[in-house]
Amino acid sequence: MEEFYTIQGEGFHKGTAAYFIRVGGCDVGCHWCDVKESWNPDIHPPTSIEAIADNAEKYSKTIVITGGEPLTWDMGPLTSLLKRKGMKTHIETSGAYKLTGTWDWICLSPKKLKLPTKEVYDNAHELKVIIYNKDDFKFAEEQAAKVNDDCILYLQPEWSKRDKMIPEIVDYVMANPQWMVSLQTHKYLNIP
After folding, report:
1. Which of 42, 89, 122, 128, by CA, is between 20 and 30 Å from 149?
2. pLDDT class of 158 with cuts at 50, 70, 90
């Protein structure tokens, strides 16, 4: 769908420069998605993996593949090429589909409509649960019970509800310190 060089705004790698590859196509359908234009893969013309990798190589050694839902597609060919070029591959995924590709970092952001596969739970480096309302804390705990013991746990307010939910998240993290707060810092910095 699009490619761009920017600062990672969320999760464990926030504040670091990265080249983002946004893959078109998603049927998970979160009502609060901030990139709904990524959902229909038919409106995004295919781009060769060679062109994508060549573009990425010009900017950064850290590549973040996001969507849409990137695991809708086989990520093996693209990540293999990026790895051959010496790049670190990160993915941001709902985990709803088979884990394909070779990843240095897996950010799992599960959605209620299509839960992650066991393989993604087992391999996630970070769990990022979006908090839209108080019910989402229960969902976050259910998801945390399914990831591996080394997985870092984040709660992130949904952007349109941030003023209401940030105090709730802060209180929750203070009472449950196994969690950390993640914010969409790129939006505060007014960068993509």
Report:
1. 89
2. very high
Find out whether 122 and 96 touch, Cβ atoms under 8 Å: no
Q: For 8, list phi and psi in degrees, rounded to 5.
A: -65, 125
> Sheet holding 152-157: strands in order across?
2-7, 17-22, 62-66, 88-93, 105-108, 126-131, 152-157, 179-181
Q: How do residues 67-94 score in pLDDT, each as one tens digit?
A: 889 999 999 999 999 999 999 999 999 9
Q: Domain 2-188, what fold?
A: TIM Barrel (3.20.20)
Binding residues, as ranges, are 7-9, 22, 26, 30, 32-34, 66, 68, 109-111, 192
Cite the annotated binding site for S-adenosyl-L-methionine by residue number. 32-34, 68, 109-111
What is the DSSP annotation of 9-26?
A: -SSTTTTSEEEEEEPP--
Give tens-digit pLDDT for 102-131. Answer: 999 999 999 999 999 999 999 999 999 999
Angstrom distance (rounded) from CA 192 to CA 186:
7
Residue 92 φ/ψ, nearest 5 degrees: -115, 115
pLDDT at 184 (0 to 100): 87
Binding site feature residues for substrate: 7-9, 22, 66, 192
Residues that constitute the known binding site for [4Fe-4S] cluster: 26, 30, 33
Structure tokens at 172: 């929750």
Could you tell me the pTM of the whole model?
A: 0.93
